[in-house]
Known about the structure:
Blueprint: E1 2-6, E2 9-12, E3 17-24, E4 29-37, E5 44-50, E6 55-57, E7 65-70, E8 75-80, E9 89-97, E10 102-104, E11 108-113
Parallel strand pairs: 2-11
Antiparallel strand pairs: 1-3, 3-8, 4-5, 4-9, 5-6, 7-8, 9-10, 9-11
Amino acid sequence: xQLQASGGGLVQAGGSLRLSCTASGSISxxxxxxxxxxxxxxxxxxATIAWGGTTRYSDSMKGRFTISRDNGKNTMYLQMNSLxxxxxxxxxxxxxxxxxxxxxxxxxxxxxxx
Length: 114
C-alpha cells in the first residue's frame, strides 16, 4: 500500500488549502489520518477519520480543519480554513489496516505566510 499526499503549497494567513491523500492498492484502511511536523518540532496529530466516518481532531485545529474521506476512491481529504503561520508544517497522511499495520505517505509541505 502506498499513500500519496498532495495539495500543499504557499498560502497567506487566513487562506485555505485542501490536502488529498490517495491510497493505492485494494486495501481497506479502517483509520486514516493526518499528522504534521513543523520545523524543529515533534510530529503531532491533526485529525483522524474511521471507515464509517467518525472523526477526531486535535483541539487546536478543531473548527478550522475538516477531515473527510471517499472510501470508493480510497482518498482522504483535509480542508484547512483560516490558516495561520503556525500551521506551517509538512503534513503526512497515514492509514491503518484491519491488522493494525500503519502506512505513511511522503508528506506535503504547507507554508502559511503572515
